[in-house]
Every structure is written in structure tokens, then in C-alpha cells.
Amino acid sequence: QSSQSLWNRLSVLLNLLPSATDLQESGLVLCNEVKDILSGAELPDLKANLLLPEDVALRNLPPLKNAHKRFNFDQDRPIFSAVEEIFGGTIDLRSSGVLFSLLLVWCQPVCFLLTNVEVCFCDQAAEEARRNRLMRDMAQLRLQLEVSQLEGSLQQPKAQSAMSPYLVPDTQALCQHLAVVKQLATSGRFIIVIPRTVIDGLDFLKKENAGARDSIRYLETEFKKGNRYIRCQKDVGKSFERHKLKRQDLDAWNLYKILDSCKQLTVSQGSGEDDTTGMVTIITGFQLEDPSAFSAPMQSAIQAATNASVEIKNVLEFYKQWKEMG
Hints:
- This protein has helices spanning 4-16, 20-24, 32-38, 53-57, 82-104, 123-152, 171-176, 178-186, 196-205, 210-225, 243-248, 250-267, 296-307, 315-324, and strands at 113-114, 117-118, 166-169, 191-195, 230-233, 280-284, 311-314.
- By secondary structure, the protein is an alpha/beta fold.
- It folds into two domains: 3-113, no CATH class; 166-325, 5'-nuclease (Rossmann fold, 3-Layer(aba) Sandwich).
- Strand 6 (280-284), helix 13 and strand 7 form a beta-alpha-beta unit.
- Helix 9 crosses helix 10 and helix 12 (250-267) packs parallel to helix 13 (296-307).
- One of its GO terms (cellular component) is cytoplasm.
- It is found in: Cytoplasm; Nucleus.
């Protein structure tokens, strides 16, 4: 009962595989060993045994001990072509699917289509969709609670509640001022979010930049520890790639990508657009005193952040402001 999601996904895979009829009518030249098991592809227990490379690789795996009793591992295994191995694996999976459907039809809904017989109940899909919605709602509530805790219950001065609970450093901030980012991460006052694009930027610079290498080592260590105050944000949803801008102005392209991540972060809070002001701050290694010194695309990216209620601050200036607020 607790594995409904697994069975649902397995049934999708099994239904994507070609049937025994499809395999027999493929017109491909197959060895006798594969032909012998084709006729039993829709039976719950294959009479012929085809020793596949994955069987050999998993020979000593304890959970498969009984299943492997039917194989003679001591005899030489026939040399199969790649197509023949795929056929053998497909037949094995189809046969297992038939067995699963016969076993599960008595205890829970299944969706694997038998030859000439359809066993398909959709209550399970509806239940999984409901569970997924519930999980998303719970995630939103958890993030809202984190914001509340960070703003009010971590014994921080009231003045500091005006500072964003989420900080998103860019590649320059990490390469140039890793020590400052570390202090912000260990303060217990902020959650540091590292977008995928920032990690890609560090990876690009690591051969020539010692700061990038130090940052990568630090982030890997923190991610492995499961530090709740510093997290990697995977790309979620579809964002504008702006391939032309990537070639013309990489800094502006990176800022747009970071801004996409910030928008995803604020949307995940489940609150209205007006409530996201001050939620996220991008901390950068760039000096921001004179915006006119930046390229036109970079100025547009900075303005886009302002329009999205996302602040951009120099990491040292942000750190100084935080310290001054006590």
C-alpha cells in the first residue's frame, strides 16, 4: 500500500515497452536463444532463461539470490548483440509486468495492459495527484514558517528584521568574498541560496581562479552536511535563456538567471506578489555606486530586479549594514 507511487511509475514504463507481437513482427534477425523466449513474453513466468549482463553484474546481490537460482552462471554466456540484449531485457520486463499485474489486481489498482486484457483503475492516479498537491502545500507552509522564524525568533535585534531572510550570492561575491559569505551563513540570521547558474559559473572559473575552487569545496562540504542555512537551488520551471545576451554580455545574462531563481523562490512562498518585497536580496561582488558604469544590458537586468522587488547589494556593503544594525 505504501508503494503505490512506485507501482504507478512502473506501470507507465511497462506500457511504453513493445509487446511480444511487436517484437516478433520487428523483422530483425535474432539468435535462437532470444527467439525461444519471445513466445513467453506475455506469460508470468518465463520458461527459458536468458542470462543478461545485468544478471551477471548482480549475481551476488542477496535479495536476488532466489531469482538467480534458475541461472547457470558457470556455463559460458552466449555473445549477444546490443539489439538482442535489449530484446531479452524487454521480454523479461514484460513477463515481470504480467506477474505484477496478476499479484496486485487482488490488493490494489494496477495499470499494466495485458495482451487482450486491460487491467486499469485510475483511482490511484487521482490519489497521487492529491498527495502531490498536499506535499506542495506543506512545502509552502514550511518555507513561510522558516521566514517567520528567521525574522522573529532567532534573538536578532528588531532593526534587522528589515533585512531579507534569503540571500543569493553571485559568482563574484563567492570568488572575492567567501569569508564574508561564510559569516552570513553561520549567523543563523539568513538562508543563503545558491542557484545552479552560480555553481556553473564557479565551475567555469575554477581552473584559473583560486576563489572559485575554495567556494566549490566549501559549498560541497555544506551541502553534504545538510546545513539548513545554505542550500543549492535547482533550476525549476522554464526561464528565458537569452542565448544572444549570453554571448554579448555574460554578466547581464548571469544576473538575469539569478533573478529567475529569486522569482522562483518568492513564488514558492505561496504569498501574493506584493508580499515578496524585501524577501530576497542578491549580494554581488560588483560595485553598485555608479550604475551608469555598467553596460546597457546590465543596467536593464538591475532594473528588472528592482521591478521584481528583489534588492541587489554589494556583499561588503550588505555585511557592513548588517553589522551596524547590531
